């Protein structure tokens, strides 16, 4: 069987690797070059996108910002999973907030800004600590502006004056404090079966995910259940087929949705080594109508992103339970180059392994990872 993925980055690559043992071939579309390629070795197929759409069994996406004409073509073929509206909901924060609000799912207090004059109303309604997020095309904290006190408002107004807010509005969100960031990742199949992984606990730095630990350390069974309910409500509302990720802010037992991603997700990479079925295989299973796999965790896992550098020692794989996944991309500042999964039997052992790992990584990892290791120990 064949699956076509819109997007040809590391997520498509990892889908390919997970699908191969099931006898499923994965083709990727480089949506910029508009070419059909192999997502692992990047070799080009002598095949148009139209032909690929007609030839494959299922079409899916590795990211939400797929040009709408391609989504449209795929939707019309009847093979696109998740559906176009679900993908577009993840691609547009205004639509996303609408889905959250209409399904009574708690999220950050917010206001839509489609004119510079809306900024005063935003400060009135939300207070002076606000994050403004471009409604489209943002990721890893790009396309965001932070207001810390209202004296900075004129500067922001000036900056926003050059944006086309009518076409691409901003979502102003109250800046919240919370205990931790977590995510729930799961799959829904065509019959409506829903199956979630254990919650991951996510450490962000400058708006970008650096470390995930799963199962999350301070999550009770009740919080896991609450997150699964949020997941199911959303997946049902979107008539979703495939893997979906929901980012949450946790304060005590209270959960609030930050955003959703209609796809496999960086905070689910731990499942490659730490769960019975990984998120990539689960997605392939869900979109092709195969039975969903067991999502049970195998021990405790930390996933560490390698960001913007290549200066680490591959010998880190000498640590038992430590695995490297390298994407083979050209190095660029803040770019996700690969990740490391470390599996252990206990949080304490995981912390100890993270301390061992430090000797193989560049200095910029020390503060964050040592802190995380010490917390786990
Ligand atoms: P991603 O790469 O996850 O798609 P993104 O660019 O879409 O990132 P968000 O997830 O919206 O951005 O925000 C990035 C990070 O900024 C969050 O993980 C969180 O640490 C912080 N953040 C976002 N919204 C808020 C908020 N309302 N209050 C406090 N912190 C926030
Ligand atoms: Mg996002
Ligand atoms: Mg996010």
TrEMBL record:
Enzyme Commission number(s) from the entry: 6.3.4.18
Keyword Nucleotide-binding appears in the UniProt entry: yes
SUPFAM superfamilies assigned: Glutathione synthetase ATP-binding domain-like, PreATP-grasp domain, Rudiment single hybrid motif
Sequence positions that bind ATP: 93, 133, 138-144, 173-176, 181, 204, 258-259
Catalytic activity, reaction form: 5-amino-1-(5-phospho-beta-D-ribosyl)imidazole + hydrogencarbonate + ATP = 5-carboxyamino-1-(5-phospho-D-ribosyl)imidazole + ADP + phosphate + 2 H(+)
A GO term for molecular function: 5-(carboxyamino)imidazole ribonucleotide synthase activity
Record's keyword annotation contains Nucleotide-binding: yes
Annotated TM spans: none
Sequence ranges assigned to domain ATP-grasp in this UniProt record: 97-288
Record NCBIfam families: PRK06019.1-5, purK
Assembly notes: Homodimer.
Record-stated family: Belongs to the PurK/PurT family.
Protein name (record): N5-carboxyaminoimidazole ribonucleotide synthase
Species: Glaciecola siphonariae
């Amino acid at each position: 069987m064949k699956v076509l993925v819109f997007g040809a980055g590391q997520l498509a690559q990892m889908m390919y690797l997970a699908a191969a043992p099931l006898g499923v071939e994965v083709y990727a579309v480089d949506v910029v070059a508009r070419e059909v390629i192999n997502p692992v070795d990047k070799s080009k197929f002598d095949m148009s996108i139209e032909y690929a759409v007609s030839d494959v069994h299922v079409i899916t996406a590795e990211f939400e910002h797929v040009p709408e004409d391609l989504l449209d073509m795929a939707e019309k073929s009847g093979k696109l999973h998740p559906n176009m509206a679900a993908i577009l909901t993840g691609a547009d924060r205004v639509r996303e907030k609408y889905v959250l609000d209409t399904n009574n799912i708690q999220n950050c207090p917010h206001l839509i800004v489609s004119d510079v004059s809306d900024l005063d109303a935003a400060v009135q309604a939300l207070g002076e600590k606000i994050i403004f997020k471009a409604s489209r095309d943002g990721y890893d904290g790009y396309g965001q502006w932070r207001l810390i006190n209202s004296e900075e408002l004129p500067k922001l107004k000036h900056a926003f004056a050059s944006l086309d807010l009518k076409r691409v509005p901003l979502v102003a969100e109250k800046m919240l404090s919370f205990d931790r960031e977590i995510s729930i990742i799961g799959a829904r199949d065509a019959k409506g079966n829903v199956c979630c992984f254990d919650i991951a606990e996510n450490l962000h730095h400058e708006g970008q995910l650096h470390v995930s630990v799963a199962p999350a350390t301070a999550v009770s069974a009740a919080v896991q259940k609450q997150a699964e309910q949020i997941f199911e409500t959303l997946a049902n509302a979107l008539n979703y087929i495939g893997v979906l990720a929901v980012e949450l802010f946790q304060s005590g037992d209270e959960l609030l949705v930050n955003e959703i991603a209609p796809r496999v997700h960086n905070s689910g990479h731990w499942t490659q080594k730490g769960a019975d079925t990984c998120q990539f295989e689960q997605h392939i299973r869900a979109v092709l109508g195969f039975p969903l796999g067991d999502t049970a965790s195998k021990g405790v896992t930390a996933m560490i992103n390698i960001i913007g550098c290549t200066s680490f020692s591959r010998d880190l794989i000498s640590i038992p339970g430590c695995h490297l996944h390298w994407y083979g991309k050209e190095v660029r500042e803040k770019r996700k180059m690969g990740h490391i999964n470390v599996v252990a039997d206990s949080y304490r052992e995981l912390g100890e392994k993270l301390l061992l790992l430090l000797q193989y990584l560049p200095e910029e990892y020390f503060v964050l990872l040592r802190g995380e290791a010490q917390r786990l120990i």
